[in-house]
Amino acid sequence: MARASSVAKQTGKTGEARKGERYREMSVAEFFARNRELAGFSNPTRALYQTVRELVENALDATDTHGILPFIQVSITYDEELEAKHGNAKKWFRVTVEDNGIGVPPTVIANAFGRVLFSSKYVIRQTRGMYGLGVKAAVLYGQMTAGKPVEVYSSIGNSEYVYSRKLYIDTEKNEPRIVERGQWRKRSGWHGTRVTITLEGDWSRAKSRILEYIKRTAIIAPYAEIVFETPEGQVFVFPRLTNKMPPPPKEAKPHPHGIDVNQMKLLLQSTNARTLLQVLVTEFQSVGKITAEKFLKQVGIPPDIKPRDLLRKEYNDLLVRLVDSMKSYRGFRAPKSEHLSPIGEDLIKLGLKRMFEPEWVDAVTRPPRAYAGHSFIVEVGIAYGGALEPVQEPLLLRYANKIPLLYEEREDVAYKVVSNINWKIYRVEFPAPIAVLVHIASTKIPYKGVGKESISDVPEIESEIRTAVQEVARRLRLFLGRKAREAEARRKIITIAKYIPEIARGLAMLAKPPEKWSPPSEDEERRLMEALIKLVSRNIEIPEIPGVDHEDPEKVVRSVIENIHLE
Amino acid sequence: MSSVPSDKVDVEARRRAAKVIHEKFRKVLDDILKGKPPKLVIPKRTLANTRFDPEKGILVMGEDVIERELLNMGEARRFMQTILMASIIYQALIENEYPTIRDLYYRGKHTIVYRDLRGRKREENTWEEQAESDSVIRDVEVYTGMLREDMLILSKEKGKVVGRMKIRSGGDTIDLSKMGHGAYAIESTPDLIEFLDVDAEFVLVVEKDAVFQQLHRVKFWDKYKALLVTGAGQPDRATRRFVRRLNEELKLPVYILTDSDPYGWYIYSVFKVGSIQLSYESMRLATPKARFLGVSMTDIFGWKGKKPYLTERERRNFIIKAKDLDIRRARELMKYSWFQTPRWRRELKIFLQKKAKLEIEALASKGLKFLADKYIPEKIQTGDWIE
Ligand SMILES: Nc1ncnc2c1ncn2[C@@H]1O[C@H](COP(=O)(O)OP(=O)(O)OP(=O)(O)O)[C@@H](O)[C@H]1O
Ligand SMILES: [Mg+2]
Description:
The complex is a heterodimer.
Chain A: H1 2-16, H2 28-34, H3 44-61, E1 71-78, H4 80-85, E2 92-99, H5 106-114, H6 134-145, E3 150-155, E4 161-170, E5 175-185, E6 192-200, H7 203-220, E7 225-229, E8 235-238, H8 261-270, H9 276-283, H10 289-299, H11 307-310, H12 316-328, H13 345-356, E9 360-365, E10 369-371, E11 374-384, E12 395-400, E13 403-405, H14 413-420, E14 434-442, H15 459-497, H16 500-510, H17 522-539, H18 553-562, E15 565-566
Parallel strand pairs in A: 1-7, 12-14
Antiparallel strand pairs in A: 1-2, 2-6, 3-4, 3-6, 4-5, 7-8, 9-11, 10-11, 11-14, 12-13
Helix pairs in contact in A: 3-6, 3-7, 7-13, 9-10, 14-15, 15-18, 16-17, 17-18
Chain B: H1 8-33, E1 39-43, E2 50-53, E3 58-61, E4 65-69, H2 76-94, H3 101-108, E5 111-115, E6 121-125, H4 130-144, E7 160-163, E8 165-169, E9 172-175, E10 184-185, E11 194-198, E12 202-206, H5 209-217, H6 220-223, E13 226-230, H7 237-250, E14 254-257, H8 262-273, H9 282-285, E15 291-294, H10 297-301, H11 312-318, E16 320-321, H12 324-335, H13 342-354, E17 356-357, H14 360-365, H15 368-381
Parallel strand pairs in B: 12-13, 12-14, 14-15
Antiparallel strand pairs in B: 1-4, 2-3, 5-6, 7-10, 7-13, 8-9, 8-11, 16-17
The structure holds adenosine-5'-triphosphate and magnesium ion.
């Protein structure tokens, strides 16, 4: 709060000084403290939601990205101390997330949680986190609204200790300010992290979004066990459905198409390579020696030029030309995709099945593609019927690197694609009970903002999503076609079978010649009825639908007749 | 009801009808027991499948048939209805009953309660209105090749007869010349009537009940040795069958007297060739030799050598202006091939020219004597009728 008042003072002064502008530098921490809506903290409702999100995503990054089956516990409780202090308003919350991940080394905790733009994820790897901002934005929001420090407990796998830190962020300096530290010897083999952030929030408004977020996380990660406790003490448990996890993503080298001058400079500074040729071959993916030689020859840059020399001023133009050519040269192989970690068709189906108990579900994982030097994979799942409510447009479940995206739906490329699909072609007539899941896995997700809520319209991604949706939708159409035929067959059976008792009775009467006529016995009617049942069931076929139990037409006919009575 | 009928004719008719029904539906049953999808092959009762047979002089059904299949969704209901109706009629025949078409409607009407695709309870009646069950009766008629009269189904009696003849019906002998001011109501099952003593030389059928009564009061039938019949407007089946039998079995010439308008002419046409909607009955009900006695347009207006029966002044008093509907009907009649004889074309031409019609009562008001003692006998004697 101290910062806010000093800001006000400065603004006042600026107003008085008419003669010239006043200049100063702002730390990145202060920048995000002032512009918190950029990171998704625009109001108490969004802030509570965003805090849960950042912590859960870090927890998942610390587990599945490292091959650990996640066990995540989330709890939101009222902070009674602040409540008492501020006139009992129910707007102070403690958000705690605990994971069984790799933990944070004690020396790093302070920076990881207290220095904006400090991250272990600034490498080319498919992780949820990418900016080095998330948890700090939550910490900043917490200390600015509730005035309390973040509390971290963490232990790495091979350590004998659990370490704790309570810290604030010094916004002016963008530095952690530790206010309490602790250390315990471990009694069990526990490793992982537990983070608590205290903040002002609006639970009643955020509740449905947060629940939805956790549900969708469970859909995309059915291998995780997630426990969520609400401030009212309600506990939601999403048990682990499978021990199968997608293979963890691997770190990749940059692709020449995805590089810029700055990155190139950093790379040239740190490389051990002795020549430019070696730099291209060892520091980049998809570039072999022959390709590199061919490329350099074509652009006319000497292959044996020394990396450090390239950093010299007089070579600046050459460097710019080099990077430019690298970006546009068509001769490199496409970016590698082995290091990507898609969820896979089975897990998508599993997750959708648990959430919607649909009548039909299917999914596709597309082959890897690339945009601007970044490889990506699109996955799409569609669920139909069952517990899904009929809706006017498909329920869209968007994911990017396994993060559920809930806000800004209409800005998202996936929405653009899904809402422009002509669903009629696929026999889907709205309102329809349909959900479409779209997952984009990439070493770089082109988010529209640091709040990570929507993805930009990258043409390559857009066209991949369309292809994937169409592919699954075609299978849905097959199913719906068979289903329609099945319903038609059933309708036919009902239409005809309901007359069987009446016909049997009439024919039994007509069957006896006039000379020897007597009222037909029940047995005689039964016999005729059986003949009619056999006849009708043998002549109406119920089409088989894969994955759905095929019913014997005779059973259907019998059940129709059992339900009939005459009045 | 179920007492054994003493009447031999009745017993015989029942036996015959029941046998036909049994045999016809035995086929359906055999198919089902053999596992063959059953179907009823029924001649089509549509206008398109109706044609005029100039040789027989009646309307007949064409060759078109419909195959009513149980396994066809659109026909299953009608299939069920046909079986249901046949079984009720069959049972009634065996149990010596005389159901009316209304009885058949009530006996066969039940509600089938079943569950639909979504498991919801649904109700369906075997048939809704009597129009529906009546239409099923017609199907049974064409499928078995029998008329409802053959199956001893009763309908409302409408036709009447008096005259110089004795008949036997239901075991009783009835003298049709001793009916007082009343008349014998032609029964629904005219085939059960036995003709006994006949002392008549022709049959006069009058369209209107009132004219029938007037001619009866003056004992027209006694004086001219006739049988006097009326269908009281559009004739029912029994009246038509009765007239046909008089013509066919007793060889009595049949003269028909109607209003002079397209409606009256159509009634004549129904007696003579049959009804367009129900051509399947014509084989048994139509009287192709029936003659149209009057009232013709030439009776009113005269023609070449023929002097009209009405004076100029009478014409002015009695003639009614034809309505649009009459004109339309006349144009319709012109399309029918049996109205395309020179005499009929002349009639229709005059009608369309003059746009005038005449009710037969007008002739009676000219004097009942004129009608009974001049108009009718003179026209018969001089052969002034249209075939
Ligand atoms: N639960 C955790 N377990 C292990 N390491 C963690 C945990 N939470 C945070 N970290 C470490 O702290 C760093 C900073 O986290 P932060 O959320 O601020 O940024 P990020 O996840 O790297 O990127 P983003 O801004 O996209 O979330 C992470 O890169 C990670 O190394
Ligand atoms: Mg993060």
